Amino acid sequence: MGTKSQRMIALAAFFFLGLLAIFPPGCLSDANQPFLMNKMSTHPMGSSRFGSSVVFPVQGNVYPIGYYSVNVNIGHPPKQFDLDIDTGSDLTWVQCDAPCTGCTKPRDRLYKPSNNVVYCGDPSCAAMHSLGKPHCKNPKEQCDYEVTYADQGSSIGVLVKDDFPLQFTNGSAIAPSLAFGCGYNQKYNGPHSPPSTAGVLGLGNGKANIVSQLHDKGLTRDVVGHCLSGRGGGFLFFGDDLVPSSGIVWTPISRNSAENHYSSGPAELLFGGKSTGVKGLLVVFDSGSSYTYFNSQAYQAVVNLIKKELTGKPLKDAADDKSLSICWKGKKPFKSVGDVKNFFKPIVVSFTNAKNVQLHLPPEAYLIVTKYGNVCLGILNGAEVGLGNLNIIGDISLQDKMVIYDNEKQQIGWTPANCDRLPNVDRDYNEGFSQPSAANYGFSAAIYAS
């Protein structure tokens, strides 16, 4: 919500507001019901359950755009929506013509619901609520939602179901019916303008996310991964076809949080290979945050150590650059982090729940160069934005790594990777699939199945 350069983890709270979010009578029809070309009683992927993956090209960057997004087709006939990639929340929603308040897209780019509202008795409604029970007096009421993010932006709407045409890595083209939010009341707070995307692709660690729904239908493994390029772009994938068989560092997902976050810990913070004395950190991996946020203790330790390290170096405070909280300028403008990285030391998040599990953050993973040619610290103080003791690993620190969220094995993994090239499964992973990855969203062969 808001420009993602200042958007943090979605501390999502779902409230089902039956009396506050009623669609206008007569706005629904049969025109948008899932179209079945072939209603199958068995899993449409054939005899092998969980046999394939879906790959999406990614657009965007940390700076200056402030977010990464993918294009997703929804409906029959399909309509394309650009969605923010957010592993910090698990509700997917799109701006909705019902009508819409606070929508940023023109009306012809909004999603039009058509007699496809999800009702409170549907399991999809229960999956959205953290306790598994929707707040509805009557199971025949529509399933309303409200999601609020850490920057106090929000979306209010109703849960709907529609077709998501997808091209799988084994060549199958299928359009399963999936539940998502139709957001007709959006609010954007903070100093930045609203995002240009049509909504949010929620991929958090919960049953409401799109990948969990695909898994429940037997279409793919409950695994999400992304590879975000530091030069912009990258790719996102559902399923485990692209997960390397070796070379990945894994840490277990903590289950001590009521929210559906990809969290792990405890972790210790190292700077320049030495301990900072900061330990016991709870770390959340969140592609919905452009920058990394440390709690007050960890943030202050890093800032003090960096400033000490810069003593005597040809860098001065750039207080007039408001791009981020702390910026420095050189004798002449910098063109890239490569021009200045030798003045900074690497940071390491060392997870103490497993041996040799470390997330390495070289200067490229915590610095940006602004349009003014200054270098700024992409680690921010989480206490200043209400994150309390949480520590958020955002996009800036996830770049040029393949990051995997395995919801089946409840673990998070990462490995250095070239994120500039959309992978070809046959070429790169030698799995013998008949077609390359799903960069082509064709519909002529799609099977529409509920």
From TrEMBL:
Entry annotated with the keyword Signal: yes
Gene Ontology terms for molecular function: aspartic-type endopeptidase activity
Keyword set, alphabetical order: Aspartyl protease, Hydrolase, Protease, Repeat, Signal
Alphabetical list of Gene3D superfamilies matching this protein: Acid Proteases (2.40.70.10)
All copies of domain Peptidase A1, residue ranges: 68-415
GO biological-process terms attached to the record: proteolysis
Name this protein carries in UniProt: Aspartic proteinase Asp1
Lineage, broadest ranks: Eukaryota, Viridiplantae, Streptophyta, Embryophyta, Tracheophyta
